TrEMBL record:
Keyword presence, Transferase: yes
Source species of the chain: Palleronia pontilimi
TM annotation in the entry: none
Reactions catalysed according to its record: succinyl-CoA + glycine + H(+) = 5-aminolevulinate + CO2 + CoA
Ranges of residues in domain Aminotransferase class I/classII large: 45-388
PANTHER family: 2-AMINO-3-KETOBUTYRATE COENZYME A LIGASE, MITOCHONDRIAL, CLASS II AMINOTRANSFERASE/8-AMINO-7-OXONONANOATE SYNTHASE
Protein name as it appears in the record: 5-aminolevulinate synthase
CDD domains: KBL_like
UniProt pathway annotation: Porphyrin-containing compound metabolism; protoporphyrin-IX biosynthesis; 5-aminolevulinate from glycine: step 1/1
Keywords assigned: Acyltransferase, Heme biosynthesis, Pyridoxal phosphate, Transferase
The enzyme's E.C. designation: 2.3.1.37
Quaternary structure note: Homodimer.
SUPFAM superfamilies: PLP-dependent transferases (SSF53383)
Cofactors demanded by this protein: pyridoxal 5'-phosphate
């Protein structure tokens, strides 16, 4: 068997469809973000427009300082799993910070947000006898894989539709039910009707599980997410988040009751059998959370730049999905065009925005996803809109009349 030939033929098919992924080779410089050094095709210096380090906390002096200090005082790696020698005081302190952020009794750290969803849903679905998991149709791959791994029954409900959820919960009878959904959906930027979902879940005695990965640090008076902003944190049984996006570091977590966190801690293979986060990473994440709990400067500046970009796109008739979040999807609807526009933006304009193609989004809904932040200047926004305006004329793309 010529395995390489097999690999290559599948890669060639991906390329023909326009769905082959090419990574941008970039180098961040503290203090300069979102301007970065480009090691790939195009100018040396480019502006990043698709980062999930939404608030630029990855270069915040308190956060970088905490990581450097703890690397110097405690060393680099954790040295073991949480159970066998790997628990550092910095993990314990970070878990307390996270429990406080979400108003919960306890929290539990994981290697990433992906692993936290996979491990928590996998454990709940497999260890709760006769459980059924009701999953929003647009849930993230990490939740889908966790549910699949649990081998529990799964029922998919219509995206953001509490009435469909109500009907489907009713059909489950008196089995233990878990309702799994997100707050901010990362590709369309829409936000779940959390209160209505909680009403329906409560009516049927179901547990609620929310992924606030794109909302933590960003929404609510202390950056506790959309559920904090709407005063709903106490109605959600399990809140899951990441330390890798708005908090600018790395890792994932869940928060909930003491019994819930202890249950996942004790039974989840994805928590037990892997080396703990580096203590320096935990310290940096804690510094970032602590900063965003008491500072709204970053959130306010980000909202301003999001509104500014939206208004300028509208003024030029460049179509984008309207939504109540910080994510601005500009729809292209074709994988090859999407890739081409992204290449031209990078090479001719020094603008880095990754094309978002299948399987991240459905075929025919390919898009450029812009995430303006507090560190994008007004001039950066003007430059981006000038570039898009030029491309829209050159490529005869359709405009939207406001
Ligand atoms: C990015 C993402 C995750 C995974 O978080 P990581 O920390 O990057 O592993 C989970 N859920 C959603 C909705 C995400 O977009």
């Amino acid at each position: 068997m010529d395995f390489d030939a097999l690999f290559q033929s599948q890669l060639d098919a991906l390329k023909d469809e326009g769905n082959y992924r090419v990574f941008a080779d970039l180098e961040r410089r503290c203090g300069a973000f979102p301007k970065v050094r480009n090691h790939g095709p195009g100018p040396d210096k480019v502006t990043v427009w698709c980062s999930n380090d939404y608030l630029g906390m990855g270069q915040h002096p308190d956060v970088v300082g905490a990581m450097v200090d703890v690397a110097q005082s405690s060393g680099t790696g954790a040295g073991g799993t949480r159970n066998i020698g790997g628990t550092a005081h910095h993990h314990v302190a970070l878990e307390a910070e996270l429990a406080d952020l979400h108003g919960k009794q306890d929290a539990l750290l994981f290697s990433s947000g992906y692993v936290s969803n996979w491990a928590a849903l996998g454990t709940l679905g497999s260890r709760i006898p006769n459980a059924v998991i009701l999953s929003d149709a647009l849930n993230h791959a990490s939740m889908i894989e966790g549910i699949r791994h649990s081998r529990a029954d799964k029922v998919i409900w219509k995206h953001n539709d509490p009435e469909d959820l109500d009907r489907k919960l009713a059909a489950c009878g008196d089995r233990p039910k878990i309702v799994a959904f997100e707050s901010v959906y990362s590709m369309d930027g829409d936000i779940a009707p959390i209160a209505e979902i909680c009403d329906v879940a409560e009516k049927h005695g179901a547990m609620t599980y929310i992924d606030e990965v794109h909302a933590v640090g960003m929404y609510g008076p202390r950056g506790g997410g959309v559920a904090e902003r709407e005063g709903l944190m106490d109605r959600i049984d399990l809140i899951e988040g990441t330390l890798g996006k708005a908090f600018g570091t790395f890792g994932g977590y869940i928060t909930g009751s003491t019994a819930l966190c202890d249950f996942i801690r004790s039974f989840s293979s994805g928590f037990i059998f892997t080396t703990a986060l580096p203590p320096s990473v935990a310290a940096a994440a804690k510094a970032s959370i602590a900063h965003l709990k008491q500072s709204r400067v970053e959130r306010d500046a980000q909202k301003r730049q999001v509104a500014r970009l939206r208004a300028k796109l509208d003024a030029h008739g460049i179509p984008h999905l309207s939504n109540p979040s910080h994510i601005i999807p500009v729809m292209i609807g074709d994988p090859v065009k999407c890739r081409m526009i992204s290449d031209i933006l990078m090479e001719d304009w020094g603008i880095y925005v990754q094309p978002i193609n299948y399987p991240t989004v459905p075929k025919g809904t390919e898009r450029l996803r812009f995430t303006p932040g507090p560190l994008h200047s007004d001039a950066d926004i003007d430059h981006l809109v000038a570039a898009l305006n030029d491309l829209w004329s050159q490529c005869a793309l359709s405009r939207q009349v406001a």
